[in-house]
Each structure stands twice: as structure tokens, then as C-alpha cells.
Amino acid sequence: MRYHSIVFAGLMMITAAFANAQGTYDDAVVGYAYTSPSGSLQFENLYHRSGGDITVDHTSEGQYKIRFYGASTQGSYIPMLAWPAADGGVCTISGFGPGLDFSHDPPTFRWVGVQCSDALTVNPDDDWNQVLLVDEGGPDGSNTSLAFVESREAMPPGGSVDLSSENSTYNPGGGTTSLSRTGLGEYYVSMDGLGAVMPADVNVYVAAFSDYSRSCRVADWTLHFAGSDNARVQVRCSGPSGPVDMRFVLLLTSTEPSSASAASAKINGFSQPSEWTTVSGSAVHNPHGQVQFRWDGDNHQIRFEWPSDQPEGVAFVTSAYSQLRFCSSTTAHRPPGGPADYLQVNVNCFDFDGTLGVGTFTVLLTQVTPAPPGDLIFSDRFAMGDSQ
């Protein structure tokens, strides 16, 4: 039986995109969605740039397919993924691409497949998940606030492949984008020329592309490898038994300068302050004010100063420490009893034995547009069963 949830978003009030001719991270956000384990969309955590419908099919245990109707099927784009994983579960991107559904108006859509499973047993397991779609954010490749790539399957050690012409590659630096494999589950992504055009202080995010319980992390990155203008990112991927070769999607982005809709930070999780501590540094960006961090004994908590009249958003996290298997995150939310002028993200990081760990990680908060007034929502969350 397939369960299907839909939000009719055509009447949502959408802020103008592409407002900045230079292009910002906000311009590149196609849409995002937050889905419950049962396959229901959460209204406070939805956005679609075109104003089209967002739907999710919960096709079987642990499997979800999210569609953004009306999104252009042309140009380069990738998805990004996050999940809360309080119990150590893992979600991966199982696929993405354009599609046509002539029973729907408009018929075009972009879709993202999500597979969730137990981190150690690899058995399918329903879980909360967040997806984000980003594209070039402009018609002529002039948006220098982000770059992205989808990798290939395993190659021999020392092998390299040119990804520059792939539909899911965007390098505003104009040079070659290549993937090199240095060992089992170990890769370098190089983007020539990117360091000459991208703001200096970027954060990097990676998501595993697999049908199995696997994950990837960023071990290191630089925009100026060996003093050049060529960016290089080291990625390591693993499964329950250790390193493994696999595909992944990689996003480099700077949320500064940008409009007041996104924030990002690199967090040193080795420090474990019990009280809220302000995080500073060149890799911390928040258009609304402070970024703070604390450790509550179980997880990392990060909060971003944010206007109290704005809705919740989505948040994406990547381990930036090679000894952590993966990190996971909640959405950007306002905890009951907490200050109204902060959005909080809880982060759990896991070692290879499935226990909670600590390390450095990056966080990306995205909240693009206010939610629609209640009288404009004419379909609440619902589930329908059919024979497929």
C-alpha cells in the first residue's frame, strides 16, 4: 500500500526570487520540505520557489519520494538531506531527477527519493527527514554564492573523472570539476577556478547517494589548494562495517552576503559548554545576529538569533571530522519555553560503533518565505491508501 500526502501550495505567498542580479544562496533555493515518518508534510517547514504543489509518497517502510511540481526541469541542481536520528538511524538520497505527470497541472516536477534505515542493521526504518533542492540560482552562471556536484560510482585508486559537463554539476569559477578516488571510500572533488569567484568563508555539506545504510562526511576543504584558485574538498564515505565506495552529492555555499533567509556556521563540537556560548569566526554567518552553542549532555544544540514573527525552517548538518561516521539534525525550531527570538537546531553525531560522538560539523539553516495565512491553506495533511 502506498501512502500519499500533498500540500496545495499554489496560493502560498512567495517572496520574490532572483531579486539580486549578482545571485545569492536564497536565489538558488528551489524548495524544501520536512516529512514525518508516516509521510505527512509539515507546514511550518515548506517552501517552493514556483508556488507549485509539494507532495510526498511514502511508498514502503523507510522510503519516501518528494515532488516539487512546477519546478523547471532544465538546468543543474542537486538535493541535500537531513534527518534527526536520535536513535542512530541513517537516511540517504536514493535518487533525484525531473519528471512529468500529465494528471497534474502543471505536469513538470523535480523529485527526490529518500531511504531511511537503521544505522547498524541496515533494515528499512521510517524516520523524519528534510530535503532541500538547490540550483544555479540564476540564468547565466553568475551566482558565486554556491557550487555543487554529484559524484560517480567507484573508480580504481588514483583514477579521476571529469564531471564538468554533468547536469548535476555547477562551478561558477568556470574551470574543470573533477572527482578523484584515493582509496576505499576516499575521494577528492576539485573545482578549478572556484576560489577566484566564491566568497572566502564557505561551509561544505555532503549527503550519501545510496539505497543502503551509508553516510559521507567532509574531512577537509579549501578554496585555494596549494596556493591556487582551485577548490578541493576531501570526502570520506562508510557503511556499518567501515569505508565503502559510493556516490554522494556535495554543496559548497556562502550565505553571506544574502538576504535575511539563511544562516550557516562551522561548529567546534569538541568544546562542550554547558551554557549558551556565542560562536564567532569567519565561517559563522547570521544576518539576524548571534549564533550560540551548548552541549546538554546528549546532543549539540545550536541556536540562531531570528525574528520571532518568522516561521520555522529546515537545517542541514555535515560531519567535518574524519573520525565521526555522520551527524544528523532536527529542523530549525523554537523549543517550548525557549526564547521566541531564536531558532534552534539539535545535532547528534555518531561514532562508527553507533554511540554518540563529538567533533567539528557544519550547519546550514534555510528559511526562505513566511508560511501562508491559515485561510489560504485548503488542504491539510492527509493520507490516502491505494493498491499500488
Strands side by side in the biggest sheet: 7-8-5-4-1-28
Structural class: mainly beta
Distance between the amino and carboxyl termini: 6 Å
Query: Which percent range describes the beta-strand content?
Result: 35-45%
- H and E order: EHEEEEEEEEEEEEEEEEEEEEEEEEEEE
Estimate the mean pLDDT confidence.
84
Counting DSSP H or I runs of 4 or more residues, the number of helices is 1
List the uncertain runs.
7-20, 370-388
Provide structural commentary.
There is one protein chain. The protein has 388 residues and is an all-beta fold. The chain is built from one helix and 28 strands. The strands form six sheets. It has a six-stranded antiparallel sheet, with no helix packed on it. A hairpin with a 7-residue loop joins strand 7 and strand 8. The C terminus is likely disordered.
Which features would summarize this protein structure in a list?
388 residues, mainly beta, 3 domains, six-stranded antiparallel beta sheet, 44% strand, globular, disordered C terminus
Short description:
The protein has 388 residues and is mainly β. It has one helix spanning 25-28, and strands at residues 2-7, 29-35, 47-48, 54-60, 63-69, 77-82, 89-100, 108-118, 129-135, 146-150, 160-162, 177-183, 186-191, 203-209, 215-222, 231-239, 242-243, 247-253, 262-268, 277-278, 291-295, 300-305, 314-319, 326-329, 342-350, 356-357, 360-366, 384-386.
